[in-house]
Design brief:
single chain; alpha/beta; two-stranded antiparallel ribbon; 11 strands; about 10% strand; elongated
């Protein structure tokens, strides 16, 4: 998808300009835009009619002159996407302050909107344990096999493992950045980002050249929560930023799942607290996640039940007699009657069916449980 298909003029150009002028989710800007729309609001900033915004954005207004974002996007091989474009993820419209536009690159960039319609955000700690990394990869691969798009933030730890799991399943995965599309952050994941772009998409609401400040990571998390069908937290400490993604998803009415870890692991303490606070639902595998975020009737998790045993179907009296049968040293009917508080005739009547079922074994006048339970 080339940016040349969408000339930068009118509202599209105003959206790109505001992406350069304002920080994401600026509440004052969001209010002005809701009242006036993009083109009139931009004119108000440039002419000084919106004095407060004009003063705040003074340095950035000056930097706008001479910037050709269409040429920059073409040079970077990315597209500028706005609401109404086929590639726009519809879930972003649920945000109180949605992104002004998106810069998107990658083989699946034209399909971004479609990919996000059936997607899961897989997030977690940067300082992940071996347990968390293993489960992130396995869950992402299994979810990809189930035709869910895995969306994450391309950070170290759980994010990277989730992307790698999706790539291992030969599936498109989406990385949402907290910096410009021209930056590979963290640098250690530069090759991973190339692999993601080769089959999936890399997305950001920040213009080229934007640096990855801490606040931008927190704001980026709202995009991950909004553009997906639900969020899975694989591993998170109590102060993990991935819990902010979970909270944003919950605020938007999206389902949230959390994978439990060892109760002694501080790396999973945030997951446990989210489950305890009813922010997240406990999940143990991909079928649980699919059941949580997927389509009714299509993605239901199988009901988990223990294997049925012969003794489970016994009538009450036979079950009671079977329960008091010794395992090693056989006893008389009289002893069994005492143990079960039943009449000897009742015990005797129950032992026959138990023997036929392979649950009781007789040696002379003595009875014990069978060492082999018949199927």
């Amino acid at each position: 998808m080339r940016t040349g298909a969408f000339p930068l003029r009118g509202e599209r150009a105003a959206r790109v300009a505001f992406a350069r002028l304002a920080e994401p989710a600026d509440p004052t800007v969001a209010l002005v835009l809701a009242q006036e729309g993009y083109e009139r609001a931009l004119a108000g900033v440039l002419t000084g009619r919106h004095q407060r915004l004009a003063r705040r954005f003074g340095a950035r207004v000056a930097a706008l002159e001479g910037v050709d974002d269409l040429a920059i996007a073409d040079a970077l091989g990315c597209a500028i996407v706005v609401p109404g474009d086929p590639a726009w993820p519809a879930g972003l419209d649920d945000l109180g302050a949605p992104p002004h536009c998106l810069w998107v690159r990658g083989a699946a960039a034209p399909d971004l909107g479609r990919l996000c319609r059936r997607s899961v955000a897989v997030v977690g700690a940067r300082a992940a344990t071996a347990y968390g990394l293993e489960w992130a990869m396995a869950l992402a691969a299994d979810l990809s096999d189930r035709q869910f798009t895995v969306v994450s933030g391309a950070a170290l730890g759980i994010d990277a493992a989730a992307h790698q799991g999706a790539l291992a399943a030969d599936a498109a995965t989406v990385a949402v950045l907290a910096c410009g599309i021209d930056r590979a952050y963290p640098r250690a994941n530069e090759s991973l980002l190339r692999d993601i772009a080769a089959t999936g998409a890399v997305v950001t609401e920040l213009p080229p050249g934007a640096a990855p400040f801490r606040q931008r990571f927190l704001l980026r998390n709202r995009l991950i929560a909004a553009m997906t069908s639900g969020t899975l937290v694989v591993e998170a400490a109590l102060r993990s930023g991935s819990l902010a993604t979970a909270a944003a998803a919950s605020d938007l009415g999206r389902p949230v799942g959390a994978l439990p870890g060892p109760v002694t692991s501080m790396a999973s303490a945030g997951c446990h607290q989210a489950i305890r606070d009813a922010l997240a639902v406990l999940v143990t595998d991909a079928s649980d996640v699919a059941d949580l975020v997927g389509s009714l009737g299509r993605d239901c998790a199988p009901e988990r039940r223990a294997e049925p045993l012969v003794q489970d179907a016994l009538p009450p009296t036979q079950r009671l007699v079977w329960e008091v049968l010794p395992v090693a040293r056989p006893v008389t009917v009289t002893a069994l009657a005492e143990r079960a508080a039943l009449e000897e005739l009742v015990v005797q009547a129950a032992l026959g069916p138990l023997q036929l079922a392979g649950l009781a074994c007789r040696t002379g006048d003595l009875w014990r449980r069978s060492s082999r339970v018949a199927s």
